[in-house]
Amino acid sequence: MPASERANFVSASVLTKQPPTRREILRGMLRHAPFVAKNFRLYFQNAWRQHIMRTDVVAPYAVTFYVTHKCNLDCSYCTQKEPEVFSAELPTAETKRLLRRIRKETDSIVITGGEPTLRPDIEELVEWARHECKFRSLLLITNGTLLDRKPRVMDAVTGLIVSLDALAADPTNALSKPAALPKVLENLAMAKARMGDARRITISTVIEEWNIGEVGRLLDWCGEQGFVFAAQSAQLEKMPNLALLKNPRYHALVDTIIARRRDGVQPINGTPRTIETLLRFGDFQCYPTMFPRVYPNGDVFYPCEPLRKVAGNLLKDGSLRKIFARGKTIYGDIPPCQGICYLFGNVLSHYYVNDFWGLAGDFIR
């Protein structure tokens, strides 16, 4: 999710030299309704849960829904190739029921996989989610190789997140993203023309030691194309690659990303502080129930997918609230994991819960 939650607060183009006051923050947020009411409602709900109920099980902001585990590529860092907890895809009608249940919990959904466009019914599902379920924010994460075969997806989603790790083609590994690069670039050009606004497309890249230079090229290219740029480091068994912190080229890249976001040079996912925490592996407290993960059959993880503990099924149990309550009874409160999973949604949840006004101010600047 790496970029999937950038709609939490929409970044304004006007920059201020001093931190904005709360009045300025409110004015900035009001320019970006209808998410404002949702943000405040969750802010007060989460404050109540933390300070009165003494729990870190916070209310969901957006749900990440895995529509399939299948993928046509074989990326080295992917955690979904052979998931420890596997679930089968439901038929179309049952998946629609599942989408309806998710909509009762939140108006924001991120559809991912595997590769979502491998599902024969993906166009029907995203159309149902947007037009029948009325999701206000509907993001779809894809490797971009099959978009031309599922063009109606681009008409239904509010945003497209395309994973891309290099601009240099490499045909030596047929199942790698560099091998698929020409097709992905062709489909991105088509998506940009069809969707009408390049800012509805996010290019999400995973930084490893081999592609630091390529990520720099991607950053420049996104600026030229008008795409939103998003980055995070590859996870190694849920842990970040701390060796990156010894690489001066990596630090220079992170400095450039933060500076461009801070100065408004180009659209970049996150804020300077969230990017700093994410890419330099700073301390944060994770609130995973803010962005719960639902597998293809409706299984819901508690407290988070990396711990592989399923607390219930949305179709059988009816609500995330019930599932989280059961999960807390069985597995206890959110464990103090010291923020080892450096994913954008995890880092964002820390700032959302612990520094709501600072986060809001950062996003409207």
What descriptive keywords fit this protein?
about 375 residues, alpha/beta, two-stranded antiparallel ribbon, disordered N terminus
Question: Mind explaining what this structure looks like?
Answer:
The chain is an alpha/beta fold and 365 residues long. The protein has a single domain (22-364), classed as TIM Barrel, CATH 3.20.20. 41% of the residues lie in helices and 13% in strands. The chain has a 7-stranded parallel β-sheet with strand order 6-5-4-3-2-1-9. Strand 4, helix 6 (177-195) and strand 5 (201-207) form a beta-alpha-beta unit. The model is unreliable at 1-17 (pLDDT under 50).
Topology:
Layout: H1 22-30, H2 35-51, E1 63-66, H3 92-105, E2 108-112, H4 122-132, E3 137-142, H5 152-156, E4 159-163, H6 177-195, E5 201-207, H7 212-225, E6 228-233, E7 235-236, E8 239-240, H8 248-263, H9 272-279, E9 293-294, E10 299-301, E11 310-313, H10 314-317, H11 320-331, H12 344-354, H13 356-364
Parallel strand pairs: 1-2, 1-9, 2-3, 3-4, 4-5, 5-6
Antiparallel strand pairs: 7-8, 10-11
Helix pairs in contact: 1-13, 3-4, 7-8, 8-9, 9-12, 12-13
